[in-house]
Amino acid sequence: MAIYFFGGWNSPKIVLADPHQGPGLYLLGLLIVALYAPLYWWRAWQDRKLAASGRLATAPAAAVTGDGVLGTPGNTVTEAEPSAGEPPAVR
Question: Which of 44, 55, 56, 60 is positioned for an S-S bond with 51, CB 3.0–4.6 A?
Fold first, then answer.
């Protein structure tokens, strides 16, 4: 753990090549990581509250088919396209 904190505290000096750089970037990173869980829980609480009142807009989920094409679950590709290394098929 000491290496983690020592390296994190001194990394802005190394990355920016500025020996006078303070620990502001390290503390900003810690703040962002520390706020992740409370913001996630707040968002989940808001979603549950809106869903209970019926005001949460739900859109159909997008599905990615096996060939990487983004589409809706009911709209799938019936014929697979050739992969990057294969020659095109004659149709």
Answer: 56
DSSP run (H or E) holding 31:
helix 24-53
Q: Residues 21-36: pLDDT tens digits?
A: 777 877 888 899 999 9
List C-alpha distances in Å: 36 to 29, 30, 42, 49, 62: 11, 10, 10, 20, 26
The phi and psi torsions of 70 (rounded to 5 degrees) equal -85, 130
Q: Where are the domains of the chain?
A: 2-51
Query: Which tokens is 13 given?
Result: 């000096």
The C-alpha atoms of residue 72 and residue 65 are separated, in whole angstroms, by 9
Q: Is this structure's pTM higher than 0.85?
A: no
Nearest C-alpha neighbor of 61 from the set 73, 45, 53: 73
Task: State the Cα–Cα distance between residues 6 and 10, nearest whole angstrom.
Answer: 6
